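Hi R.,

As promised on Friday, here is the backbone we talked about, encoded as C-alpha cells. Could you run it through your design pipeline when you get a chance and send me back a sequence?
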C-alpha cells in the first residue's frame, strides 16, 4: 500500500508537465505609427519572428517595410504598441534590446576616407564591446573583405561596400540581423554570393530578417514570408505553404493542329487557347495534393484524346512567388 501511494504522485507529476514552445526572438504587438501630418504608416501590426529563421518582408514602395524595421531597431518611435527583442522591451530596456540587433541599411554612411578595418572595429566599440581583433578578422574573412582591410571605403566597388555594411552590423556579434534591401544595385553574381553569406550566418544561429524588392531573393532564401501593404500585414506564411496554397499550376499542351475553340465536351474544365489556337492551357489550383493533381490531369488527358485532339508536347508550370505577390497586392488595392 505504501509503495502505491508513493508512486502515484510521481506519475501525476510526470504527466501534468505542460508542453512548452520556444518564445519568439522578436514579438511585435499592436504596433502603429501615425505621423503629425495624419499619415498612418503602420496599422496595429502583430508579428512574431522565430529564432534562427530567415524571414522575408515583402511589400511595394511605401508599404511600411522600412518604418517597421526602424521601429523594431529603436530608430523610430511607435505611436502605439510594443516590441520585445529576445524578451527585452525595445523602449524601456533599449540598450539590451539594441545590443541583440545588427542592422544593415541600404546606404553606407561611414567616413569614405577611413579604411575597412577601422570602420568595422569602430562599429564594435559603439555597442560597448571590448576590442576583439580575432572576431573582426573572422567577419572580414567570411565576407571576402580580408584582402581589402587596409583599403579606404572610397576605393571599393558597390558590392564590396555592401559587404562592409554587413561586416559593420556583425562587428558586435548580434543574434538578430536586419537586412534592408541587401542586394539593391548589386549584380547577379555578387547577389548570389551575398545569399550564400546570409545562409552561412543563419547556420551559425543568427536570425535574419530581410526586406527586398527582388522576389527571387525571398523565393531563394526565406523560410517564412510576410507581405505588408499600406501599413498592414496582409499575411505571414511559410514559403512552401504560401506557394502551395496561393499559387496555381498550368498544364500546357502543344497541339498538332490548331483549334478554333475549346470543344463543348471539355467545357467543364478551366481550359483556354493560346498562340492562335496551337496551345491548350489547363489552369488549376495547387491546393490539391499531388496525387489529386495526377488523377485530375489523367482524366483530362483521356477526355482530350476522346475529343479527337492530338498534342505533340506538354509541360507544367507553377506560379512564381512574384505572381502570388502581385496578385495579393492587387486584391487589396
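Update: got your reply. Pasting your designed sequence below so it's all in one thread:
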Amino acid at each position: 500500500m505504501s509503495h502505491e501511494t508513493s508512486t502515484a504522485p510521481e506519475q501525476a507529476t510526470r504527466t501534468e508537465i505542460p508542453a512548452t514552445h520556444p518564445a519568439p526572438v522578436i514579438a511585435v504587438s499592436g504596433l502603429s505609427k501615425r505621423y503629425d501630418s495624419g499619415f498612418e504608416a503602420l496599422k496595429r501590426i502583430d508579428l512574431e519572428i522565430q529564432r534562427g529563421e530567415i524571414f522575408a518582408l515583402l511589400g511595394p514602395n511605401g508599404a511600411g517595410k522600412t518604418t517597421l524595421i526602424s521601429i523594431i531597431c529603436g530608430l523610430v518611435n511607435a505611436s502605439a504598441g510594443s516590441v520585445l527583442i529576445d524578451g527585452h522591451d525595445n523602449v524601456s530596456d533599449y540598450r539590451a534590446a539594441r545590443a541583440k540587433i545588427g542592422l544593415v541599411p541600404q546606404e553606407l554612411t561611414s567616413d569614405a576616407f577611413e579604411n575597412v578595418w577601422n570602420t568595422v572595429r569602430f562599429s564594435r566599440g559603439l555597442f560597448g564591446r571590448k576590442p576583439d581583433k580575432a572576431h573582426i578578422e573572422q567577419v572580414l574573412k567570411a565576407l571576402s573583405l580580408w584582402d581589402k582591410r587596409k583599403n579606404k571605403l572610397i576605393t571599393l566597388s558597390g558590392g564590396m561596400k555592401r559587404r562592409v555594411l554587413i561586416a559593420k552590423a556583425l562587428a558586435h556579434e548580434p543574434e538578430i540581423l536586419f537586412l534592408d534591401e541587401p542586394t539593391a544595385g548589386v549584380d547577379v553574381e555578387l547577389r548570389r554570393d551575398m545569399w550564400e553569406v546570409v545562409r552561412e550566418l543563419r547556420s551559425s544561429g543568427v536570425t535574419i530578417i530581410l526586406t527586398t524588392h527582388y522576389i527571387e531573393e525571398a523565393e531563394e532564401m526565406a523560410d517564412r514570408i510576410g507581405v505588408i501593404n499600406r501599413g498592414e500585414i496582409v499575411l505571414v506564411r511559410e514559403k512552401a505553404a504560401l506557394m502551395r496554397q496561393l499559387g496555381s499550376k498550368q498544364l500546357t499542351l502543344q497541339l498538332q493542329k490548331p483549334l478554333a475553340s475549346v470543344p463543348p465536351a471539355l467545357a467543364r474544365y478551366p481550359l483556354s487557347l493560346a498562340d492562335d489556337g496551337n496551345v491548350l492551357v489547363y489552369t488549376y489550383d495547387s491546393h490539391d495534393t499531388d496525387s489529386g493533381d495526377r488523377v485530375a490531369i489523367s482524366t483530362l488527358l483521356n477526355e482530350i484524346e476522346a475529343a479527337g485532339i492530338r498534342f505533340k508536347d506538354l509541360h507544367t508550370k507553377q506560379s512564381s512567388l512574384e505572381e502570388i505577390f502581385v496578385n495579393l497586392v492587387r486584391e487589396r488595392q
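One thing I noticed while checking it: Residues 149 and 305 are 67 Å apart (CA to CA).

Thanks again,
M.
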